Every structure is written in structure tokens, then in C-alpha cells.
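It is worth pausing here to work through a concrete case rather than discussing structure prediction in the abstract. The textbook approach is simple: state the sequence, then state the predicted structure, then interpret. We follow exactly that order.
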Amino acid sequence: MPKLPNIVAPSILSADFSKLGQEVKEVLSAGADWIHFDVMDNHFVPNLTVGPMVCKSLRDADIDCPIDVHLMVEPVDDLIKMFADSGATSITFHPEASKNIEQSIQLIQDLGCKPGLVLNPDVSLKVLEPFLQELYMVLLMSVFPGFGGQDFIPETISKISSLRKIIDEMQKDIRLEVDGGIKESNIFDVSSAGADTFVAGSAIFNKSSYVDAIQSLKNNFN
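Step two, the predicted structure:
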């Protein structure tokens, strides 16, 4: 089964928050496909980032691209509702952060968003088995979440390959997203292993030219 079209989703965690709306518009003009939100609660992970008001403010500023929300929070259901109301397109969460995974997935769907699950590097793919048929996307973390700018964990490549095989055998269009340390030097390997959706923060926002940064990533797709 052919892979879905590749997506580059800059993470606003690495953007300049003093001019966030401008930053988002610039990366979209430079060729980004989605915008990625890393939502941390200083409880489930050791950092505190953005809330639903930031998502709403971007929608109010006429940002109409898909907004991909990764919830690193516990519990998840209240934040699912808030981000859905604020204009999220897709919402992913960690299974261990939900009291009832099936109900949280259903809640995302009922609110008009696309559901996904997130696996940390030390979480087995077996966790996905009961839920895969309901998912729009699986996000594999290639770092342990909590902070931006970390190095890619090489063992993630084999996990991506294994998940790609599972998705292909299902013959279902489930996006395979990877987040953590994605950059020009490793995106070919990540793409070759079977990922189709790539979250990049510092690899884009820390560069002087967003056009060059995004094009460099896309030029290195398999």
C-alpha cells in the first residue's frame, strides 16, 4: 500500500513567541504543511508550554492550515475539549495519560477532530493493537518528551519500520508521525523506515531561512 503524501509540521515550541503569528505565517509561506503544538503540563512531563488560547489566537489571526496538537498532559479529556473548541485539526495523546483510551479517542472524533495516539520511546507498539482501527495517526516519539532540541534516538528507526509494516498489513490510511530530533541529516532514514509526517522544531525555527530549512528537509525525503 503506498505511503500517504509526506507532511512537514513545524513545532511552535521552537518559535519566537514574541511574534508567534508572524512566525507561523512565515513557515507556512516557506512550505510547511501543518503547524504542530507541543502541549506540556509540568505534570505528565517536566515542562509547561502552551494552552488552547494560543491555538484560538492563531485561528483568529486567519491561520487556516491543519493544527496538529500533541497533548503531553494528564488527564487528557478536558484539554481535548478545549483544543477542539479552539480550532485543533488533529489531537494525539499518550495512552497512559487517559483513564479510558477508547472514550478519549471517541471524544476527539465526536468533537470533529482526528484522533491519534503517541508512544514514548520505551512504550511498546503492542499498546496500539486494540485501537489502531479507530486512529487517524500514530505519533512515535524519537526523544523522551519534555524539552525541545534533543537528539534523535537511533533505535526509533526499527520501531518506525515495524509500525509501517503493521499499518500496511491493515491496508488502512493511518499517518505515521515522528517527533524528536528530526533534521536534514536523519530525515531520509526516518522517511525510508516508513514515516510520512515529520515534526521539526529547531531544524526549522533556528535557521536563518525558513524556505531553505523546509526545502532541505523535503529534498531528503525517500
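Step three, interpretation. Residues 7-219 form a domain with the TIM Barrel fold (CATH 3.20.20.70). The chain has one domain: 7-219.
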